[in-house]
Input
Amino acid sequence: MGYLVHILSTAGIFAILALALDLLVGFGGMMSLASGVFFGIGAYSSALLLKAGWPMPVAMLFGMGFATVLSLVIALPAIRIRGVYLLIVTIAVQMIFTTIVQNWRSVTGGDAGVSNIPPISIFDWKLRGLPFLALVIASCVLLLLVMRKIADSPFGHVLRAIRDDEVGAASLGKHSAAAKLAAFGLSACIAAYAGSLYAHYTSYIDPHSFNISLSIMVLLMVMLGGAGTLVGPMVGAIVLTILPEALKFLPLPPGAAPALRQLSYGGLLVIVVFLRPQGLLGKASAHRRTQ
Output
């Protein structure tokens, strides 16, 4: 039972992270490989501030706010570019973040990481096991409802217009720069919340938990489930979280599991690209409009 709760809790955290990225990729058409940055900022901020004596809600909110502000600083010079150029910028940001976290040992602990992070607590009631899973599920449901409201709002329509034809949207008086900045900020805020949950759940974090591999994996979750569908990226997160766990039960020689996991990820992505390029839950017509 404990193992199942652990898998579901982890899948739920990554579902929140995938939902955050879907706002950029699925609705704004902005490819990003910096999810690990904002996920890590939320985790480190919440963990370090809590250990320094800050109240837990304040520590988590600070991490979310800091990630939002930093995302706006990063997005400001990048809002006029898109496609592969924006992707390159986010990769550079991811690499810079990883380097800083690894070398700022006096604060982050370097490669040794931060350990003994207290769990989330409500009035001295520590959320572990099923109570923590309930919090994660409630967060997923609440965020999904909020994101659906955003998708149906004028802001959501502007984002989709920018995704489909930015020049045309601008000619109609839509402020694409402001919409992009808002999308970056909101996405970073949600990602930082997921990072806070992750840090307090695992009780240990290090730079390797938030590197470029994580950002690639989150993008795969979004593309696998179906960018722009909201539910699809969450399904993709669940699939790609459960898949490596399922491989552990196969009778494999030592050291073969990681290689097989990477092979499975690559094979699954190739299959989706050829058979379901719009993702598991995406619509073919919607995919054609984004080409």
